[in-house]
Write a structure and sequence with these properties.
14 helices; alpha/beta; 14-stranded parallel sheet; single chain
């Protein structure tokens, strides 16, 4: 478009609609990084943008998408309308799909959605259902043969007799699902590429985990019927809130993973370990480099002893992080205990030197004697220590008490001349 100006007929060119003239690959790159709700709204920008969102290969349907200010509309009805709208307009492959309807009271009918995904090459699938209404996966789910990453929450898994597993599966997460132990064993063993496994369910029956490429295993539940049979590459293991029942030999459970590098335990699994392992593991885990313990009570004798036995069993440990239990101890007593520190723990560790320990993080410290002795022990036995970060318990002792704790820590002998102790007073 040209506008005449003055006698010399000079002209000014009005710039075109920039949005309409963007290359298609640029438009796709913009839309793919938007939340789905905003991506759909781009359809009003111009004719060229109208159906761009319909080509998205990654979609997320959650509460934020179907939430509406119209209280007269049922969330379940609103979600159902949106679901069918997407199924009608979407074209091309859909490789990653997340469905989170955990906040809905009822689970809407989504069999058609699962069937749609199975026909469009879904590779990364997350399904989260309402906790009070388990969703039974339809038969079409078991034809998602391209699936590589699968996360299922609160659903019923009952496969057809001929189904074995997903041979391309790399990551599997099952949280509060209903599944038979026989099928779970089959699902794992028939997934030769499986590298990541998360199980957060109480499953009856014996589970033998045979996964030659498994790298990471996160388990919550009963250990009495779980055994690691073939996991030569297992490097990361998390055992949280495990059931103390049964006769599982926890020492053998750990020793069956000689290549373990990262271990996470919480108070329940440590308490279970306290009665199961000897002075130290019979076969030290020489590859273990990082130990993370959560919700620990160092003022519990059994728990504290178990923590020390674990540390003795990991001669090449490089990083320790311990998050202490939120204790309700009185702080007047704490200060009296600090004044009378002894070195009992250091003496009991006389034959141990943590030659590879470089980093320590302790959170929830309030100044109890066992806590201070543990700090003293690590400083005295770690000649290669570079940094120790200490964070006091939130909302507990006063700034004055924290300063006194800091003053006591600064008196501790350090085996490493490079050790930096950072204590957050404020």
């Amino acid at each position: 478009m040209v506008h005449k100006k003055g006698k010399n007929h000079s002209c000014r060119i009005v710039p075109p609609d920039i949005l309409s003239y963007l290359p298609e690959n640029v438009i796709d790159a913009i839309v793919i990084h938007l939340p789905l709700r905003d991506a759909v709204r781009t359809s009003i920008l111009s004719r060229k943008w109208r159906y761009t969102w319909c080509r998205l290969q990654k979609l997320t349907l959650d509460q934020a998408f179907w939430k509406t200010t119209n209280n007269l509309t049922s969330p379940t009805i609103r979600f159902t309308d949106i679901m069918y709208y997407l199924l009608t307009l979407h074209v091309g492959p859909l490789t990653k799909f997340t469905l989170s309807i955990a906040d809905l009271r009822n689970c809407p009918k989504i069999d058609n959605l699962i069937c749609f995904l199975s026909r469009n090459g879904v590779q990364h699938l997350v399904l989260q259902f309402p906790k009070d209404n388990l969703y039974k996966l339809p038969s079409s789910f078991f034809t998602c043969f391209q699936i590589r990453h699968l996360s299922l929450h609160k659903c019923l898994i009952n496969p057809p007799p001929a189904f074995k597993g997903f041979d391309k599966l790399v990551a599997l997460e099952l949280c509060e699902v209903t599944i038979s132990s026989k099928f779970l064993v089959s699902l794992i063993s028939y997934s030769p590429l499986l590298e990541q496994l998360v199980l957060q369910s109480s499953i009856s029956g014996h589970i033998q985990i045979k996964a030659p490429k498994l790298i990471s295993f996160d388990f919550t539940g009963s250990l009495k019927l779980i055994s690691l049979m073939d996991v030569p590459l297992l490097a990361q293991l998390s055992l949280v809130d495990i059931d103390e029942g049964g006769s599982c030999d926890i020492a053998k459970f750990l020793e069956s993973s000689p290549g373990l590098e990262h271990l996470h335990l919480n108070c329940y699994s440590v308490q279970f370990l306290a009665s199961k392992i000897p002075k130290q593991l019979l076969s030290p885990l020489n590859c273990l480099k990082r130990l993370y313990l959560s919700d620990i009570c160092l003022d519990d004798i059994d728990e504290a002893s178990c923590v020390l036995r674990l540390i003795r069993s990991f001669p090449y440990l490089q990083d320790i992080e311990i998050q202490l239990h939120d204790s309700a101890s009185g702080y007047d007593d704490v200060m009296e205990e600090i004044a009378g520190l002894e070195s009992r723990e250091v003496e009991s560790f006389s034959d141990v030197t943590l030659n590879h320990l470089r980093s320590v993080k302790l959170t929830g410290i309030i100044g109890l004697t066992p806590e201070m002795e543990f700090i003293q022990l690590l400083l005295a036995k770690s000649p290669m220590l570079i940094r120790m970060l200490i964070e006091p318990g939130v909302g507990h002792n006063s700034p004055e008490t924290r300063l006194k704790v800091l003053a006591e820590i600064t008196k501790f002998r350090r085996a490493s001349s490079k050790a930096e102790v950072v204590y957050k007073v404020a």
